[in-house]
Design a protein that fits this description.
The strands form two sheets. An eight-stranded mixed β-sheet has the order 3-2-1-4-5-6-7-8, with helices on both faces. A five-stranded parallel β-sheet has the order 10-9-11-12-13. Helix 5 links the parallel strand 5 and strand 6. The chain is α/β, with parallel strands linked by helices. The chain is about 40% helix and about 15% strand. The protein is built from 17 helices and 13 strands. The radius of gyration is 24 Å and the shape is globular. Bound molecules: ligand SAJ.
Length: about 425
């Protein structure tokens, strides 16, 4: 069976290494972090994802999966490293470059290299191919290069890895065919082949589609507040139309994908990306919009304490990358509020102190739900009412039972719900 080296053992690399190991490949997982490598070799994991622990435990105990800090010779190299953005909103390709460079000494005739990391259009052709060819081997002739963008949803990664359709773009058709052989070992749905730049663009447009639609939802929520009507009712009713799918408003767009990927297009085509850029700015402005709402709620309270519920960027995950909660937190700090933060999915996040639910709510003047964790839907308004100092709640995801909270005397504020105008 072929040997596969997976470079980068994060949210995508680790589950991919796990499913490849369970498909029978000899998988070498490579990560620059010794802590991560040691964790995996103990049969443990460093991220929260349903089903992942069992998968990795099985891979490690059957010796199909071994982690190490440096690459090694293999038949296939899969690069799954982060592609963040810089302060200037440019794609930071340092990790892709160093991953590419790190495998050059191990490349051999017939090897296949697959880039999974989401990347600006042209990355395989113009960035990775020249790096790999430093080995003296020609892409498309001696070695093969394809882009197979990951498209899985955190929280559902294992299911989606197996059941989502995959797009594979090769530098040449043969590159794509060879990559398909690998993914066919675990993908149960369709695999579509194309060229590398098209695959890069497909991935970027999927997330841009979502970002633009979320921006539209956030803008609609703001309009509804001004109109004194309920955004959530507007969405429900509009979505009865067969060709309309309004998205949901929230405190902003987080995660390593949707809030990042559209910038890759803006960077390459600054003059043409008008809608994409405006949408990005609308979503990036939402944390401040939420902070302004908190300010209004607390305007008559001396030295107010705000209880922020949810640090993760979305419900039921422990991922805080680009989380709108971090922006809300730092904006509140600037305003000298007392702040407590509770997130049942995150144990610690230095230097920010995390509280238990009880200590977060204790003496709070406003509870702010920032993440749609299931746990927050179950908070008892009765016990909350006994802990807080002032009974204010702001729900940015419309997840609470407003009648119940009202019953216990709370002043209810829901993002997107305006006060009726007479
Ligand atoms: N959000 C809204 N309103 C919505 C939907 C989402 O405000 O109607 C917010 C969420 O709260 C969150 C952010 O958007 O902050 C993104 O969450 P998400 O669940 O929509 O997406 P991600 O970033 O976790 O994963 C996305 C997925 N892409 C698409 O759905 C098109 C996933 O399939 C990709 O693999 C992933 O990006 C990626 O890696 O690119």
């Amino acid at each position: 069976m072929k040997k596969i080296c997976v470079i980068g053992l994060g949210y995508i690399g680790l589950p991919t290494a796990g499913v490849l190991a369970s498909a029978g490949y000899n998988v070498i997982g490579v990560d620059i972090s010794e802590r991560i490598v040691n964790t995996i070799n103990r049969g443990e994991i460093h991220i929260e994802e349903p089903g992942l622990l069992t998968l990795i435990k099985a891979g490690v105990s059957s010796k199909q999966l071994i982690a190490q800090t440096v690459p090694t010779n293999a038949d296939v190299f899969i690069i799954a490293v982060p592609t963040p953005i810089t302060e200037e909103k440019k794609a930071d390709m340092r990790y892709v470059i160093s991953a590419g460079e790190s495998i050059v000494p191990y490349l051999d005739k017939g090897n296949l290299v697959i880039l999974e990391s989401t990347s600006p259009p042209g990355t395989c052709q113009n960035l990775l191919k020249p790096i790999l060819e430093r080995s003296g081997l020609k892409v498309g002739k001696d070695i093969y290069l394809a882009h197979c963008p990951e498209r899985v949803l955190p929280g559902k990664i294992l299911h989606e890895l197996i059941h989502n359709d995959r797009i594979i773009g090769g530098i040449t058709p043969k590159c794509a065919e060879l990559a398909k052989e690998i993914y066919s070992s675990f993908v149960e749905s369709e695999i579509f082949l194309t060229d590398a730049t098209t695959a890069e663009m497909v991935k970027l447009m999927e997330n841009t589609y979502r970002d633009v639609n979320i921006a539209l939802a956030n803008e609609t929520a703001i309009l509804c507040e001004k109109l004194g009507i309920n955004f959530w009712e507007v969405v429900k009713l509009a979505n009865h139309h067969p060709r309309v799918h309004l998205h949901l408003a929230g405190p902003g767009v987080g995660g390593h994908c949707i809030s990042v990927d559209p910038w890759f297009l803006v960077e390459v085509f600054p003059a043409e990306t008008k809608i994409i850029k405006t949408a990005r700015e609308r979503n990036d402005g939402m944390p401040l919009y939420v902070v302004k709402k908190i300010e209004t709620i607390l305007k008559n309270i001396q030295t107010p304490k705000v209880a922020l519920l949810g640090l993760a960027y979305k419900g039921n995950v422990d991922d805080i990358r680009e989380s709108p909660s971090l922006h809300v937190y730092s904006q509140l700090l600037l305003r000298n509020y007392k702040i407590s933060v509770h997130d049942p999915h995150i144990k610690h996040h230095p230097p920010m102190p995390l509280d238990t639910l009880e200590s977060a709510l204790k003496d709070a003047d406003c509870i702010v739900i920032l993440t749609a964790h299931d746990e927050f839907k179950k908070i008892e308004p009765e016990s909350a009412s006994k802990l807080v100092r002032t009974k204010n709640i702001l729900d940015t995801h419309n997840i609470i039972n407003t009648e119940e909270w009202e019953k216990y005397g709370f002043n209810i504020n829901i993002l997107g719900v305006g006060k009726p105008q007479n």
